[in-house]
Amino acid sequence: MLAIPETGMGRSVKAHNVRLDVLCDWLEASALFLEEPEVPDSEVVDTLVEEEIYESQQFAWERVADAWSELSRRQDWIGQASPIEVQGHRLVRRQEWRQAPAHSFCLALTLARMYPEWARQFGNDFTEQGELFEKLTQRSVEALFPGWRVHPTAWTRTQAKKLHVVVHEIANLLGESTGEIRRWTKPDANEAGLDLLCYRPFPDGRVGVPVYMMQCASGRDWEGKLHTPRLKIWTKIVQFAADPVKAFATPFAMTDDEFPGRCAEVNGLMLDRYRLLSSGRDNPDWVPVDLGQRIIAWLEPRVTSLPRYAD
Hints:
Number of helices: 12
Helix content: 40-55%
Order of helices and strands: HEHHEEHHHEHEHEEHEEHEHH
Largest sheet: 5 strands, mixed
Structural class: alpha+beta
Number of strands: 10
Distance between the termini: 9 Å
Shape: elongated
C-alpha cells in the first residue's frame, strides 16, 4: 500500500477523524499505482491499527466499510471506465494506470495534497499541469454535452493572450458586443479567471444562447478559486444578451456531504473528478491519443516515486 497520507488521517478513538475522501483516494491510488493488483479490506484495517490511526479494530472496520460503500458508488458513476473495481472484500485493479490516463492524472493531482513532501520534489512550476487539466476538462465537456462548443481562453506557454484579445474572441464567437474593458480590468490582466468558454449555438446564429464560463482548478489551492471567474466583471466587459452561468472543474473527488456546499459557492455547474470521468461511460475513447501520451509522460516520474508503506 501507499504510505499513510500526511493530511486527513487524524487519530480516531471515539470519533472518526479520518476523512472519507482521503481514505478512498488513498485506497484507489494504492490499488492503481502499486505492483499488487488488489487491496483487501482486512489489510487496510490492520494498517490503520498498526499506524495507530485507530486504537480499536472494530472502530476501524466501521470507517473502512464506509470507504467500501463510497468506492462502490464511485465505480457505479463511471461504469466500465473505472480502472478500479470493488469485488467483495477486495479493491481490485482492472486496468493498468497507463490504460486509464485521465483517471490516473486526476488521482495523482489529488495525491499532491495528501503527500506534500512528495509533490515538492517536482518543483513549483504548475504550468504544464494546469494546461493538461484544462485540455482534459475540455474533452470531457465536449463528450458530456454533444452540440456544445468549448473554447479555451487561458494563457499557455505557446499562446499568451491578454484579456482584451480574449474579450474580443468571446464577443465574436457569441455575436455579442464588447463593453468597457479598460474601466473594469487591469492593463496586465490575462484571462480574468476564465479557462473555458462553453456555449450552445443555434442555427439562427442569434445571441442569447446558453453560456458557461468555466474555471479549471487543479492545484491544492483550488478552494480559493471557487469565486472565479467573476461574472460581475465579465458581464461588464462583454454585453451579454442573456447572462452567462459560472462553471468549475477540479480533479478532486467530493463526498455527498461536501458537494452541495461547493455547488452553492460556485453558484453554477460543478464538475468534480467523477463527473469529469463519467464522460467515459458511453465513450471510452474520449481522451485523444496525443493528450493521453502527454499525461502518461507527466505521470511516469511521479508514479515511480510515490511513497510506499513499510510495515
